[in-house]
Amino acid sequence: MILHSVYFSAKGTTRLCADCIAEGLNLEKRDYDWLTASEPEKTAIPTEDVLLFSMPVYGGFIPGLCAERVSSLEGDRTPAIIAAVYGNRHYDDALLQMKELLEKRGFVVIAAGAFLAEHSIFPAVAAGRPDEKDRAAMKEFAGRCRELLAQKGLWEEKEIALPGNPDYDASVFKGTAFHPDGDERCTGCGSCVEVCPMKAIDRENPRKTDASRCISCGACIRVCPEKARDYRGEAYLAARKGFEEKCAARREPELFYITS
Ligand SMILES: Cc1cc2nc3c(=O)[nH]c(=O)nc-3n(C[C@H](O)[C@H](O)[C@H](O)COP(=O)(O)O)c2cc1C
Ligand code: SF4
Ligand code: SF4
To answer: Is 3.30.70.20 the CATH number for 181-230?
Structure first.
C-alpha cells in the first residue's frame, strides 16, 4: 500500500501537518506538492493505495486553484484521508467540500481532521501551532486511520458524516483585500517570482504585486531572503487588531471517521 500525499502549503504549516500524519501512517510515501503555477499531472491512485489530501482553509474552503486541480486525481473506490488546516477562525465547509470533490473523482473518504496552524495573514493568531498537543492529535488520527485501512469490510458500504452546510457555495469567497508587497530591502533576486503560484509578481519589479491575481497565500513572504515582502498599510493593521481579538480563544483539532 502506497500513501499518496497531496498538499498545497504556501507558508509550510499544511505540509507540517501532512508529514506528521504520514509519519503516523508509516507507509511508503509519494509527495505531490501543488504549490506551483503549472497544472499537476494526471494521477491515478489504485484501490489498494491511499490518498492523504491536506489543504489550508481559505475563506472557509480550500484554495480555488486546488479545488480545480482535484480533477487531476483519479481514484477507483480508493480510500482517502483528508486534513483541513486552518488559522483558528473556523474551517466552515472545507471538509465537506474536500469530501465531495474527491468522491466525484472516485475516492472514499474514510477519515477527516480539522487541524490548527498559525494564521498565515495574521501570524499572531494561533502562533506556534501546530504544537505538541496538535501533533499528539495527528498521531492519534493516524493510528485510527491505520486501523480503518486494515478493515476495509467495515467501511466499504458506508459514508462519512462531516460538519458543514450541504448547500455551500465556494464561489462566495472572493479572496482577501490584503496582498503582500516588497520594500526597499528587495535585491531583485527573483525567488518570490519563482514561487508565486499565481504569477502575480513581475520579474522586472518584484516589489509590486498584481492584486487581481494574488491569492494572499504568503509563499513569497516565506521565501524572501531579505524579509522584504509582507502585509502593510493602515487597513491591514486595523483588520489585524480586530482579527486577533476575535480569534484569540484556542480551538482544538476535530477528528471524524467513517465508522463513527
Ligand atoms: C486567503 C486566506 C484565507 C484564509 N481563511 C481562513 C479561514 O477562513 N479560516 C481560518 O481559520 N483560517 C484561514 N486562513 C489561515 C490559513 O488557513 C492557515 O494559516 C493555514 O495554516 C495556512 O496554511 P500554510 O501554512 O500551509 O500556507 C486563511 C489564510 C489565507 C491565506
Ligand atoms: S504574490 Fe500573492 S499569490 Fe503570489 S506568492 Fe505572494 S501572496 Fe501568494
Ligand atoms: S524574494 Fe525578496 S529580495 Fe528576492 S525579488 Fe522577491 S522581494 Fe526581492
So the answer is: yes
